[in-house]
Amino acid sequence: MIEVKNVTKKYGNFYAVRNINFEVKDGEIVGFLGRNGAGKSTTMNMITGFIEPTSGEIIVDGYNIDHKPKKVKSQIGYMPEGTPLYSDLTVKEFITYMANLKMIPRKNRKEAVKKAIEETGLEKVQNNLTKSLSRGYKQRVSLAGAIVGNPKILILDEPTVGLDPKQVIEIRELIKSFGKDHTVFISSHILPEINQICDKIIVIDKGEIVAVDTPKNLEKNTTDKTVLKVVVDDMNNKFESLKSKVDEIKQIKFVKENEDKSKEYLVEASSENDIRRKLSVECVNENIIILEMSLSENSLEDAFIKLVEDRKEYSQKEVEKMQYDREIEELREEENKRKEEKENRKQAIKEEKARKKAEKEAKKEAKNNKENNEDKGGNE
Ligand code: ADP
Q1: Half-sphere exposure of 326 (CA within 13 A, CB side)
Q2: 91-101 and 106-119 helices cross at what angle (nearest 10)?
Q3: Which of 93, 133, 101 is nearest to 117 (CA)?
Q4: Helix or strand run (H / E) with residue 138
Q5: pLDDT number for residue 312
Q6: Rounded to whole angstroms, how far apart are CA atoms 16 and 74?
Q7: What pLDDT does 174 receive?
Q8: Which of 42, 44, 81, 314 to mutate to test the pocket of ligand 1 (most atoms within 8 A of CB)?
């Protein structure tokens, strides 16, 4: 599990990340979404221990990265942004080099490298120089470097950036397969690239967390419309006329005609109602055959844009005021804690005094009783 608690990273007066809090639970695949410059790499670099937070705490698998950096680093496989590979090494040499860096014991190293190569489908190119590989394969090598030694947690910074759509799908499938026995934290600036594989999405903007939710809820809570992508076989060109038959439909937009003469449309509707059922019934009535009907990824992208676009930009003065208020609040809390400790100490002294007094009195009474008894004994 990764716990990020009140973490801030400042460069001079600039907040790259400001007071962020979130958790990535064991076995989850969590997406970290934000525009370029939002603070994703900074956060990931802090979790992996490459840079130190200005304030706050990061706990990985129960260990505070500040106190146990080696222990934390051994739990994490990190794929940094931009696939930094050593181009004069072969694929196998690079992964072995990463295994050395991770201090995988010599006797297990060969096996660990072999396993990482297999898991990322690099067997055929393992003896090729990394510089000769396509972008997609380079990305796989970088992934292999992250998973070698089977770390519990994988942190992947923009793993699909610069890939063509086919490569994106391949890498996505690979990451999904890692999710079965790893905790995965993966960043992206493009929502559709990660929404399909993530259990949860954390949205960061201008250094602050603006939403933590499932991809589905994220869309539901931020858009006031549903957009369906529908592909139909519609010989009589009736599909657009369905707008007047289903009340919830606001708009039907023609997108393209495919080679097989099927037509693709985007159907925009009010979000409260799932109009898929009604639309299907109307299509049957009009002899329209639905070949495909799915929630459009555009609407998810809209949700994300809405979340970050509506956010207020703080002036430097406001930022300083917020920081000042926070510092005052911290001082106040410290002062209260000190007062409480003082009060506890006072109480303890008081109780100790009372205990001693009671002890003294008990002794005195015991002595008196003894003397009385002796007197009585003497008189008899
Ligand atoms: P992302 O990964 O989301 O694109 P980054 O975490 O790389 O964003 O950067 C967040 C912000 O912090 C950006 O505005 C960036 O310019 C700034 N930043 C990052 N590293 C440094 C640094 N070493 N010095 C100054 N500013 C930095």
Answers
A1: 12
A2: 130
A3: 93
A4: helix 135-147
A5: 58
A6: 26
A7: 86
A8: 42
Ligand 1 in contact with 11 (CB < 6 A)? yes
Task: State which of 11, 32, 46 you would mutate to test the pocket of ligand 1, scoring each by most atoms of that ligand within 8 A of its C-beta.
Answer: 11
Structure tokens at 83: 């696939």
Q: For atom 20 of ligand 1, which residue has the closest CA?
A: 42
DSSP reduced 3-state for 212: strand
Strand partners, 264: 231, 256
pLDDT at 346: 93
Return the ligand 1 atom nearest residue 34 CA.
3
Long-range contacts of 112-121 (CB under 8 A, 24+ apart): 112/148, 112/149, 112/150, 113/148, 115/148, 115/150, 116/144, 116/145, 116/147, 116/148, 116/149, 117/91, 117/92, 117/144, 119/144, 119/147, 119/177, 119/178, 120/144, 120/147, 120/174, 121/174
Q: Work out the widest C-alpha separation in the chain, in whole angstroms.
A: 130
Q: Any idea how long the chain is? A: 380
CB of 34 within 6 A of ligand 1: the answer is: yes
298 contact partners, CB below 8 Å, separation of at least 6: 227, 266
Identify the pLDDT of residue 224. 64
How far, in Å, from the CA of 352 to the mean position of ligand 1? Answer: 56
Q: Is the CB of 36 under 6 A from ligand 1?
A: yes
Residue nearest to atom 10 of ligand 1 (CA): 39
SS3 state of residue 182: coil
pLDDT above 80 (res 221): no
Q: Which residue has the tokens 């949700």?
A: 303
User: Does residue 82's CB lie within 6 angstroms of at least one atom of ligand 1?
Assistant: no
Evaluate: CB of 80 within 6 angstroms of ligand 1: no
Residue 62 alpha carbon to ligand 1 centre in Å: 27
- Given a cut of 90, whether residue 42 has pLDDT beyond it is yes
Q: Which residues have CB under 8 Å from 219's CB, separation 6+?
A: 295, 299, 300, 303
How many Cα atoms within 13 Å fall on the side-chain side of residue 132? 9
- Measured between alpha carbons, how far is 240 from 246 in angstroms, rounded to an integer? 11
> What is the C-alpha separation between 111 and 114, in angstroms, rounded?
5
